[in-house]
Design brief:
Length: 149
């Protein structure tokens, strides 16, 4: 049984899961994508505005006519979509680095929790000794009172 192919030659279910727009300047996935109508290219809004400021208002990739911020067409994406993972998680060294960072954070948190636990135990022990001493003093004073009667 064959799967239907999209215009790109990929199966349609693959095409539907790969609909992330990438910035023509940075190559990263766009969070706030815009299209420049004169060139038809997709950019991340913040990256494009920075590049326009540096290039004197010319299209940074196409180099064509001047682009004004009012000419940009915003693309409305799926508001419930999860932002893509940074590219550093797509390689084994990146994943190992992320795991090491998570382990270090967990170890630091465990250390802080153990220190807090030890401090709380010391405080509880001191409070129990004080309460025990108070009970002994009360028992001794009560015994002395009873003898004096």
């Amino acid at each position: 049984m064959s799967t239907p192919l999209a215009a790109s030659g990929a199966p349609s279910d693959v095409r539907n899961t790969c609909n992330i727009l990438h910035c023509s300047i940075s190559g990263d996935a766009c969070i706030a994508p815009v299209i420049v109508p004169t060139s038809g290219r997709v950019y991340e809004r913040s990256v494009l505005l920075r590049a326009l400021a540096e290039n004197g208002g010319k299209d940074p990739v196409g180099g064509g006519a001047a682009v004004v911020e009012d000419d940009l067409v915003a693309i409305r994406g799926d508001s419930g979509a999860v932002p893509p993972r940074p590219p550093r998680f797509s390689s084994v060294p990146g994943i190992l680095h992320a795991l090491r960072d998570e382990y270090d954070a967990a170890a630091l948190e465990t250390h802080a929790l153990r220190r807090a636990l030890d401090e709380t135990r010391r405080e509880l022990s001191q409070a129990l000794y004080r309460a025990d001493a108070a009970v002994r003093v009360i028992a001794r004073v009560t015994a002395e009172r009873d003898e004096a009667r």
